[in-house]
Specification:
Elements (H helix, E strand, L loop, with lengths): L10 E5 L12 E5 L6 H6 L4 E6 L15 H11 L4 E8 L7 H18 L3 E6 L2 H10 L6 E4 L6 H13 L3 E7 H4 L5 H7 L5 E4 L8 H16 L3 H17 L10 H11 L11
Parallel strand pairs: 1-2, 2-3, 3-4, 4-5, 5-6, 6-7, 7-8
Helix pairs in contact: 4-5, 7-8, 8-9
Length: 278
Amino acid sequence: MRSTAGRSLWIDTHGHPQLGRPAAHSASVVVVSTHRGDWPRVRGYGGRVFGRAYGVHPWWCDTVESDATWFEDLEAFLREEPSAIVGEIGLDGLRGAQNKDLQSEVFERQFRLAADLGRPATVHCVRAFGALREAFEAAPRLPPRISMHSYGGSFDFARDLGTLARRRGSDVFFGFSWVVNGKKKRQLDLIHGLPDDAILLETDLEDPSLVDDHLRRIRDLVATAKGWSQDDTLRICHDNALRFLLDQTTPTFDVSPEEEEEEEEHRGGTTSRGGGDD
């Protein structure tokens, strides 16, 4: 499907095609790095690119433990490419969990850098939702827009994170990929409950030859969950991708009167700290 301007509406908001063998794909991809050695490959990727992301994934935090210049070099990459976002960054309670302190430090420094530079961030979180919420609460400020990549948490946590971010002047989106989310039955109820304007399509793939097929599959899953047509799903998720990547943000959760009162208290200087779901 193409827009009236002839541009493809298919945007993969989180993929790793720089790690696979070159292959053609019709969709535009946000090419996301995983570690320092990956950054030049992301910059040099020759396929259809909508944007690029530079960062250190929680699985590869140990690669920068003794690297004195990694953070300065990351900032340089981002400053040299003003449209680039920060990622993939995050916390993982399963893989890489043997050094939680290092993982937290690397994530928090990159999260703060995204906020300082005013860049969106794409965030990985596996069985570390309480720690992630604490990081959101403790940060001096948040990145302007945050995507929870291949989101696998609960609806309640998504709602709470969205409310917390909105209070802090940020917006949270939720990406879904076929490879991670496609076979989880509970995803339908989760996606159905999320705000229409907070959903992103992604692949999380290294093989660029599979990008178009996987985007169609996850588009169809979102369409089923939301009760939308395939064309409407593609259009809505395309517009959401533009908001996430290009500073047009409006994701909205329904807010109860109690939450409105709590937000007023927060604006008056009262903050709340508490753990999320793990």
